[in-house]
Amino acid sequence: MALEDSTLSLVSKDMIEEKLAKSDKMIRMVLRMLSNSLKVVHDAYAPKGRNVVDSVGEMKEQALHVQSYVDNVAVPAVKKEGARSVKSIMELTNSIAKLVESVPDLDRRTPAVPSEKELEN
């Protein structure tokens, strides 16, 4: 979310990889090291789940990772038992998401819609 008017340029991962492939090997190595360092710093200092909407989104994403793991596991006993658990996790996560989505004031990124009474004042 931008706090003021901004101009953005799209630089895709493919564009970066194409440029890197044409660059010197040492430059590629240094840029990858810097990129990894930046990711580590971001993960360490970026606020996690700034609000409940972000937290629920992260929960849903993690539930999908668990579901993908269970779907792709080769051990039949784990797959059978895991499928039941994953179904429960997905149902619960989706219920929480619907609840949060029903209360727009929880998402601080979206301005609350003023009521008719507030508009009259």
What does this structure look like?
By secondary structure, this protein is mainly α. The chain has two domains: 32 residues, no CATH class; 60 residues. The mean pLDDT is 78.
Per-chain topology:
Layout lengths: L12 H10 L2 H21 L6 H21 L3 H26 L14 H5 L1
Helix pairs in contact: 3-4
Question: Gist?
Answer:
The protein is an all-alpha fold.
Provide the descriptors you would attach to this structure in a database record.
single chain, 2 domains, 0% strand, 121 residues, flat, mainly alpha
Runs in which pLDDT lies below 50 for 5 or more consecutive residues are: none
The total beta strand count reads 0
Task: Give helix and strand order, one letter per element, not per position.
Answer: HHHHH
Rg calculated over all Cα atoms: 22 Å
Strand content: under 5%
Structural class category: mainly alpha
Gross morphology: flat
Approximate helicity band:
55-70%
What's the pLDDT, averaged over the residues?
78
How many helices in DSSP terms? 5
How many domain units? 2
- For the termini, the CA-CA separation is 29 Å
Query: Could you describe the largest sheet, including whether it forms a barrel?
Result: none
